[in-house]
Amino acid sequence: MSRLLGSVRARATLAATVVVAIALVAAGTAVLLSLRSNLNDQAGTEAERSAREVAADLSGGASYDRLRLDDDQRPVQVVDATGVLVAASEDLRRISGTGTDVVKPRPPRPTATAGGGATADDHGGDRGDDDGGDGHGGDDKGGDGKGGDDRGKDGRGRGGGEDDDYTSLRPGQIGAEVSFADGSATLDGDTADYRFAAVAVSVQSKGELTVYAGAPLAAEQAAVRTALTVMLTGLPLLLAVVAAVTWRVTRRALRPVEGIRSEMAAITASEDLARRVPVPDTQDEVAGLARTTNETLAALETSVERQRRFVADASHELRSPIASLRTQLEVGAAHPELLDVTGAVEDTVRLQRLAADLLLLARLDAGERPSGTRFDLAALAREEALRRPGVTAHCASAEVVGSRGQLARLLGNLLDNARRHARSRVAVTVRTDGAWAVLEVADDGAGVPAAERERIFERFVRLDEARSRDDGGAGLGLAIARDVARRHGGTLTAGEAAEGGALFTLRLPASA
Fold first, then answer.
1. Higher pLDDT, 419 or 472
2. pLDDT tens for residues 426-469?
3. Which long-range contacts (CB under 8 A, 24 or more apart) does 243-248 make?
4. End-to-end CA distance of the chain
5. What distance in Å separates the CA atoms of residue 280 and residue 168, rounded to the nearest whole number?
6. Cα angle vertex 371, ends 366, 372, to 5°?
7. Cα(379)–Cα(377) distance, rounded to whole angstroms?
């Protein structure tokens, strides 16, 4: 499992599937909430319409027994200002979510009129014989419906404040505001959930009444269940499609990467640095990776080839003085009187210098950093010029930071090279040029052809005029000089002097 998740394809597929799953769950939740809200609003509108129809009948003077409470098989309650149920649907058996859970209305008590008669449907203060005498005792429900039942506007107990909006209704007027609540009811033996609407109406001789009417939520619940079922069924299928498509797309996108990997493995196994990885015919990151890989392989091939040439040339250069020295020693051992001591010393010195050059190149190739010594380049140039006859120095002070020994080696190689090719004069100058310290070595010799001015800095390269090992050295002096210059953050170039000879220009960062 861990190996599978370690692949880019698996991680990309998993990430895409998780992101799509989160997005679908969020979208599905929003859709369900929106659907439920819309259907609740629709049920609330139907409940309000039913409640206002009953309120319209009451405001028109219809008695409780003539109200249309069972026409559409919806639960309806009518509650007076004291919270007493005065009318309800005939088949109502249980109800919750309205102002009262009573399902059977209380028969109206007749009250005496001014002429000694009685009026039905009037629940005035004579309710006190049940709830506390004259309507002001008992449980403080109050004959006027504004006492201590504390059901308030939401409970539709009609108790509480004088600021209730319903208290401002005039006889025959229906309240403009409506409140909603969710509940349940058992009607005609069937129990279901309903959305209840409460509407207030003021009726002459009956006072203020509250009509509760419910609209069934079965359609809303069925629609939500259907949508939820569809989502729960479709979500896994959709996620499976997303995972499959992502798996195939990433496989196709990563196919060039697999080609690069397999080719690199083959190159490693064969050690053939001339091979290159395939570059896809696209302009994306994979194509850039392939091109960069090929550039790295080319640089590595060049470096390895250079190293091989260096080892071969070094072996060749070392073989000559060693063979010459061995020959002289063997002759001297057999015939002491024929021993060329001077030649043996010269070969030994040459061998020592070559070994020193190879050691310095090895340190430079290993990335050895120069020391941070601050010194005057002009003083160094004058010292090196004094050691060599025929060299003149024209130097202005120019401080640099670096390895004094390595820069002395660089300058010595330039001066020795110039003396080998000069006819009569070698000149060294030091000056400053802005943020650079500039050192120039010029001679009056034949110069360096323009086509060879970069090649002479390669290792073990000697032009035809200097092919003699006795006079020309091993061909490492200028290569060492350029490597030292680069290690000090500078440059070394070859050009033409004013007198037609060679001109070597060294540029180093001047010390602040």
1. 419
2. 999 999 999 999 999 999 988 899 888 898 888 877 765 444 44
3. 243/13, 243/16, 243/17, 246/12, 246/13, 246/16, 246/17, 247/9, 247/13
4. 61
5. 83
6. 140
7. 5
345: its two tokens: 């010393």
Q: Is 508 helix (H, G, I), strand (E, B) or coil?
A: strand
The pLDDT confidence band at residue 170, using thresholds 50, 70 and 90, is confident
Q: Three-state secondary structure along 175-189?
A: EEEEEEEEEEEEECC
Of 317, 260, 264, nearest to 460 by C-alpha is 317
pLDDT given for residue 145 in this prediction: 34
What fold does the segment set 373-509 form as a domain?
Answer: Heat Shock Protein 90 (3.30.565)
Residue 95 burial class via C-beta count within 10 angstroms: exposed 0-12, middle 13-18, buried 19 and up: buried
Q: How many CB atoms lie within 10 A of CB 466?
A: 16
Residue type, 170: R
Nearest to 409 by CA among 512, 488, 341: 488
User: Per residue in 192-222, pLDDT tens?
Assistant: 899 999 999 998 888 899 999 999 998 888 8
Q: How far apart are CA 351 and CA 317, in angstroms?
A: 9
Picking from 103, 205, 196, 204, the residue whose alpha carbon sits closest to that of residue 155 is 196
Question: In sequence order, what DSSP letters do the residues of 60-116 get, joined into one string?
Answer: TT--GGGS--SSSS--EEEE-TTS-EEEE-TTEEEEESSS----SPPPPPPEE-TTS
Q: Domain-by-domain residue ranges, the chain?
A: 1-265, 285-365, 373-509
Distance, CA of 435 to CA of 509 (rounded, Å): 6
| Domain over 285-365 is classified CATH 1.10.3470.10 | no
Q: To 10 degrees, the CA torsion angle through 350, 351, 355, 357?
A: 20
Distance CA 319, CA 35 (A): 94
- Helix (H, G, I), strand (E, B), or coil: what is residue 123? coil
For residues 185 and 94, the answer to whether their CB atoms sit within 8 Å is yes
Of 106, 102, 194, 109, which is closest to residue 151 (Cα–Cα)?
A: 102
Do the domains spanning 285-365 and 373-509 agree at the CATH topology level? no
Residue 186 near residue 92, CB atoms below 8 Å: yes
Query: In DSSP terms, which residues pair with 212 in a beta bridge?
Result: 77, 198
Report the alpha-carbon distance of residue 303 to residue 296 in Å, rounded: 10
